[in-house]
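Dear Dr. V.,

Thank you for agreeing to look over these. As mentioned in my earlier message, I'm a first-year student in the group and I'm still getting used to reading structure tokens, so any feedback on how I've presented them would be very welcome. I ran two proteins. I've put each sequence directly above its structure. The first is here:
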Amino acid sequence: MSCYSVLKEKGLRVTLQRRLILDYIHDNKDHITAESIINHVHSKFPQVNKSTIYRTLDLLEKNDCVFKSKSQDKTIYHHAEEGHHHHLVCNRCGKTFDYDEDVLLPVKKKLEKTLGFQINLNHLIMNGLCKECRNLK
């Protein structure tokens, strides 16, 4: 279901600002920062307040339209229609490797079974060293 439909179904207006943000997130297949979203909106409508953009991003996250995560001290967003996936980020060279959420399913099941803890693995970013950087020692 599209984000537009989700918002309308929940009785939320699809304002011009929300439309600009949604379109930008949808059109960018990469992960994008709040700063790049703000720059995009301001390039079209400079009068839009940053707090409006952040509130919109929070609203979109709460309604499962976007996923938000932290990477290298930045908050990044990606469209929920891309699905759940995770990232490995090399601390040395910065390369990012995507991997499917199924990789962590055994960990999730074990935590639920042994501790009764239901973990949220929507969009996880793990840091370490890639093969090439490990070989540079």
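The second protein is here, in the same arrangement:
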Amino acid sequence: MKNMRKTPNKQGSDHIGNDIIAILKSSIIAIIMTLVCFAIFAIIIKVADLQETIIAPVVQVIRTLSIAFGGMLAAKSSKKLGWLKGGITGVVYVLLAFMISSMFGGSIFMGSVIFSDILLGVIAGAVGGIIGVNV
């Protein structure tokens, strides 16, 4: 009989590393998507001479759809636990967006706004993750 050696299962740690990379990539893609949509929206506002009251709702819709898209991308990478990967992607998105806006805006504000943004990120990302696993 051959002496069978058991090798440690490194696939688990590789799997977690792949998930982390997928979440980071998806969050960055979602941020880029948001910035592109904001630029397009800014041009539309300038050309169409729209009222300023429309800005806040459109910004929320753009952010929500971008987060959901990022969650969908993260979940497609492994086809399981999509809600979790999407939710984490949403949180990472919000934190990255907060860091970017703090760098360019010059002010750091941690209040109820960041908590509501994180909640939005978790929910939109989880929904996107559920869609990504099932598509």
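From my reading of the second output: The two ends are 47 Å apart (CA to CA). The CA atoms of residues 14 and 110 lie 35 Å apart. Does that match how you would interpret it?

Kind regards,
E.
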